[in-house]
Amino acid sequence: MGGRRAPALRRGHDVYRPPTDAPVLDPFRPPPEPWLAGNRGIEYATPAGAPVQAIGPGRVAFAGQVAGRLVVTVNHPDGLRSSYTGFGAITTRRNAVVRSGDVVGTAGGPFHLGVRRGDTYLDPALLWGAAPGAGRVFLVSEHG
Fold it and tell me: Is-contact 108 127, C-beta < 8 A?
């Protein structure tokens, strides 16, 4: 981890991967309006203690507690930002360089993965071609 530079992203589905093999509890459901309810990521049915992996290469921007929950955020070289919420334990630290598949923590039970480019939420499953209707990208802006 240490002082390595984050690797350059390659094109294709070999760059990003699901963070777990657990089934999806709640898929990406963009709200019809930015202020309405929806799911701006994917909720996974992970058992407590299951490893959670980085979805792609990048640098850990945050690893700690937010509103009583453990959160890890990774900035990826292509401008995407992935956020993982619902850890039992975090096994990475801020500024660590991670590769796709590196364990960043263990689940505290079901956990949530969100992916954004700037203020726009993306369907994370489209990154590895697993979403129904793959090829369609759902964008949700926070600013209407």
Answer: no
- Contact present, 4 and 98 (Cβ < 8 Å): no
Q: How far apart are CA 65 and CA 78, in angstroms?
A: 26
Rounded-to-integer distance, Cα 71 and Cα 138, Å: 24
Q: What is the pLDDT of residues 29-42, one digit of tens each?
A: 888 777 777 788 89
Residue at 62: amino acid letter: F
β partners of residue 94: none
Separation between Cα atoms, residue 124 and residue 115, nearest integer Å: 6
Contacts of 121 (CB under 8 A, 6+ apart): 28, 30, 40, 41, 114, 115, 139, 140, 142
Cα 10 to Cα 8: distance, rounded to the nearest angstrom: 7
What letters, b where the CB count within 10 A reaches 16 and e where it falls short, cover 47-67? eeebbbbbbbbbbbeebeeee
pLDDT per residue as tens digits for the range 94-133? 999 999 999 999 999 999 999 999 988 889 999 988 644 3
In order of start, what are the domains of the chain with their CATH numbers?
A: 24-29+37-138 (2.70.70.10)
